[in-house]
Amino acid sequence: MSLALDPAAQDLLFREARTANTFTDEPVTEEQVQAIYDLVKFGPTAFNQSPLRVTLVRSPEARERLVKYASEGNAAKTAAAPLVAILSADNEFHEELPTLLPHFPQAKDAFFSERAVRENAAALNAALQAGYFIVGIRAAGLAAGPMTGFDFEGVRKEFLDDDHTPLMIVNIGRPGPDAWYPRSPRLAYDQVVTVV
User: Fold this and answer.
1) d(CA 195, CA 111)
2) Residue 169 above 90 pLDDT?
């Protein structure tokens, strides 16, 4: 059975996509970021909760503040990328549920009145949305360099607040020279288990 998605799009989004480690200095425009967001916001989440929040780091001053929280191996990449996004989970996402889930507005209180429950739901669903965001960057013809090698608490204090949990930093732009490490192996289909 073949996939419905065109093979060239399959390559762009998956088979040829890798984490970029260098970027050109070509800027990433606000229009490009909006087009990415306007595509990936339609990816499904539980209860349509949509807890992912994107903080764009554009100015040199903001970039300098962010780079100091990156691990040694990631600092130079983040400093050189045309655009950096901090992806975080909004632990107060439930406040938006009456708008996002209009047929069941009581879900806000029925399922998400406790902070610990919200944090678990936000982490899972925002991570799912982060995957959509990375694929959306690729769909825009750009490269993504997602990273978790940074001081999470430092980034939260510097750029977010107590209601937002950082998930990852994503460097965004056109791939530069030697942007890719060699492709690492993937698990084979025999890792899929069928229960009968």
Assistant:
1) 30
2) yes
